[in-house]
Amino acid sequence: MYPRIRDLREDRDYKQRELAEYLNCSQQVYSNYELGERDIPTDILIKLSNLYNVSTDYILGLTKNSKRNK
Amino acid sequence: MYPRIRDLREDRDYKQRELAEYLNCSQQVYSNYELGERDIPTDILIKLSNLYNVSTDYILGLTKNSKRNK
After folding, report:
1. Does residue B35 come out as left (phi exceeding 0), alpha (psi in the -120 to 50 range) or beta?
2. Which helix (H) or strand (E) holds A65?
3. What are phi and psi of B53, to 5 degrees?
4. Chain A residues within 8 angstroms (CB to CB) of chain B
5. Which chain B residue has the Cα nearest residue A63?
6. What is the C-alpha to C-alpha distance for residues B56 and B29, in angstroms, rounded to an integer?
7. A56: how many CB neighbours lie within 10 A of its CB?
8. Which pTM does this prediction carry?
9. SS (H, E, C) chain B
10. Taking a C-beta distance cutoff of 8 angstroms, is the pair A57, B57 a contact?
């Protein structure tokens, strides 16, 4: 389960519907990513990382530092 | 396709068979990760990141800097 993608979305005041549109998936599928009921594919992980300008390590909870190295 | 997981493995002189054992998957499945024929699940991504002590961003080709932030 990757709670950071919910926190990142809420910090930016995005709706699940908006994320689903950005990611080209249904709101149900996106919701399942947030709930950890569906594994996040790498292409989605990369898109989320780009949207929020954070590292994939941060999204996956491997670090508290959100910065992506150049 | 994520060529870095092949490069990381070869740099350490690991065999695909050894990686498959570490990851608890078949050698065929592991080979498909290297070839980009099967998406890398997040749990596998994290295990590879831990094994090689590199960031998941590096594995995914998002940065040239392999270092994982603390």
Report:
1. alpha
2. none
3. 55, 50
4. 2, 39-43, 45-46, 49, 55-57, 60, 62-65, 67-70
5. B70
6. 19
7. 26
8. 0.93
9. CCCHHHHHHHHCCCCHHHHHHHHCCCHHHHHHHHHCCCCCCHHHHHHHHHHHCCCHHHHCCCCCCCCCCC
10. yes
Does ipTM top 0.85? yes
Nearest C-alpha neighbor of B40 from the set B28, B26, B30:
B30
Return the CA Rg of chain B: 11
Per CB distance under 8 Å, which residues of B are interface residues toward A?
2, 39-43, 45-46, 49, 55-57, 60, 62-65, 67-70
pLDDT digits (tens, 9 = 90+) for A6-63: 999 999 999 999 999 999 999 999 999 999 999 999 999 999 999 999 999 999 999 9
Phi then psi for residue B15, to 5 deg, are -90, 155
H/E element holding A12? none
Structure tokens at B68: 């994982």
